[in-house]
């Protein structure tokens, strides 16, 4: 159907839908369903057209009115972790992939650069840290740095520092995602140089079994925070049918939701680094068990579960709030 025919056929109905004041709840729901169906059709056959913008505007008003008047669920806190955050993660999954690939590429760059030039690790990690680590290796305790602070003090310091880094990675997305990419790349290079440095000293296995006790959660959370920054940054780059300001506000809200969801992860990572990592003589099976459980949690909650939830919505087996969980163009 040509766009002009589609508009002529539905113009009267849409005009009537514009007046939503005083409309009964059941009628609101019926009108909203019809609007979303028409909007989906227009997006498919007339993308970027004035018809799409017009319908999106009306649908947005209905969406705001319906959900503004909806009573808050008493289990709002639980719903955030079991529904809202996973749904947002599913919608942002390609940014999570981009963030992971950027970090992985940067880590490979750090490994390659350190392999080619031994002074590179000093450039990245600093002379003070490298010299201290070399002294610890000579003393027979290469991971002594994790025993240098009081446990509670270290827990608080590491936790707040990690949360600061994650919010910085998110906020840097306001620079059209380039700030976030830089932070991811910088941290990836540091990790690659750090791990290869221990490999050069014949300590790769012991370093992995120690550092990744907390690093599995910590590094994963930084990558996910990077994805949140890209969500916000790309909302500026690609506003779609929204104004750039409105698109940015929506992207910022979506990204902030993801970053807030990472706070408990950083708290657990800080606890592990402050209270557990320092026990470098723990049995190998225990270290591997902690690392495996951490990796399994990250993979399931932040990747697998959101995809399963999204698939169940698509198949109609479950629905987020409302009939379709519709969000006018994200």
TrEMBL record:
Coiled coil segments of this chain: none
UniProt keyword annotation of Metal-binding present: no
Keywords for this protein: Membrane, Transmembrane, Transmembrane helix
Keyword GTP-binding: no
Annotated TM spans: 95-115, 165-184, 196-213, 219-238, 258-276, 282-303
Highest rank taxon of the organism: Bacteria
Listed Pfam families: SpoIIM
Protein name: Putative membrane protein SpoIIM required for sporulation
The species this protein was found in: Anseongella ginsenosidimutans
């Amino acid at each position: 159907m040509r766009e002009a025919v589609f508009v002529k056929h539905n113009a009267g109905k849409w005009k009537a839908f514009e007046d939503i004041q005083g409309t009964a709840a059941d009628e609101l729901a019926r009108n909203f369903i019809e609007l979303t169906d028409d909007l989906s059709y227009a997006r498919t056959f007339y993308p970027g057209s004035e018809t799409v913008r017009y319908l999106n505007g009306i649908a947005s008003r209905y969406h705001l009115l319906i959900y503004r008047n909806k009573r808050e669920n008493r289990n709002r806190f639980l719903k955030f972790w079991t529904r809202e955050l996973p749904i947002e993660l599913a919608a942002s999954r390609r940014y999570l992939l981009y963030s992971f690939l950027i970090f992985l590429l940067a880590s490979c760059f750090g490994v390659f650069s350190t392999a080619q030039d031994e002074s590179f690790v000093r450039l990245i990690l600093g002379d003070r840290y490298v010299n201290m680590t070399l002294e610890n290796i000579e003393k027979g305790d290469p991971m002594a740095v994790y025993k240098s602070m009081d446990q509670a003090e270290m827990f608080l310091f590491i936790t707040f520092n990690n949360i600061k880094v994650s919010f910085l990675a998110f906020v840097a997305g306001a620079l059209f995602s380039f700030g976030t990419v830089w932070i991811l790349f910088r941290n990836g290079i540091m990790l690659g140089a750090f791990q290869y440095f221990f490999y050069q000293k014949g300590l790769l296995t012991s370093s992995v079994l120690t550092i990744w006790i907390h690093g599995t959660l910590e590094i994963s959370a930084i990558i996910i925070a990077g994805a949140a920054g890209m969500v916000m940054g790309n909302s500026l780059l690609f506003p779609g049918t929204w104004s750039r300001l409105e698109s940015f506000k929506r992207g910022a809200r979506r990204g902030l939701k993801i970053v807030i969801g990472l706070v408990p992860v950083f708290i657990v990572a800080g606890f592990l680094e402050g209270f557990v990592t320092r026990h470098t003589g723990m049995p190998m099976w225990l270290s591997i068990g902690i690392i495996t459980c951490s990796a399994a949690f990250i993979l399931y909650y932040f990747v697998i579960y959101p995809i399963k939830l999204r698939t169940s919505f698509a198949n109609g087996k479950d629905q987020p709030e409302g009939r379709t969980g519709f969000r006018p163009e994200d």
